[in-house]
Specification:
mainly alpha, 2 domains, two-stranded antiparallel sheet
């Protein structure tokens, strides 16, 4: 029983460390966002003259993807799973379903932009429903 308590305490430490690292990265992104007189310009380039338009929303998007990868890695280590066969009739793991949901979400956003244009809040709602369906049935 002592080994179980120590094992549980180790995982609490690992999850806490991962959360602290991700929060520190997010804090760094917020601090890197251009601001003047305490007012943040969320859509201004974070790197003036850079090769890519690294605005806070773009950086936040990649932060979320990184967070999902960290989460899936920790879940795979802590709770190993066997592949399952869903409605696509292929074996998938959590990571496979994450990839399928992200790929589908990219297409949903592109289709939304083509037919409805910005903003993408409606597409985000559709993407969340899509991800829930993929994780449940695929």
């Amino acid at each position: 029983m002592a080994a179980t308590a120590a094992h549980r305490a180790n995982w609490v430490l690992i999850w806490t460390l991962a959360a602290v690292v991700m929060a520190a990265i997010l804090g760094g992104l917020i601090l890197a966002t251009p601001h003047e007189d305490g007012v943040f310009d969320w859509f201004a380039p974070m790197i003036p003259g850079g090769w890519m338009a690294w605005t806070f929303p773009v950086a936040l998007f990649f932060w979320v993807i990184g967070g999902l990868l960290v989460l899936m890695t920790l879940l795979a280590i802590r709770y190993p799973e066997t592949p399952r066969i869903g409605i696509l009739r292929i074996e998938t793991t959590r990571g496979d379903r994450l990839f399928i949901s992200l790929l589908g979400s990219a297409f949903i956003c592109l289709i939304w932009l083509f037919f409805a244009g910005p903003p993408l809040w409606g597409a985000l709602a559709v993407c969340l429903v899509w991800a829930a369906v993929v994780f449940r049935f695929v």
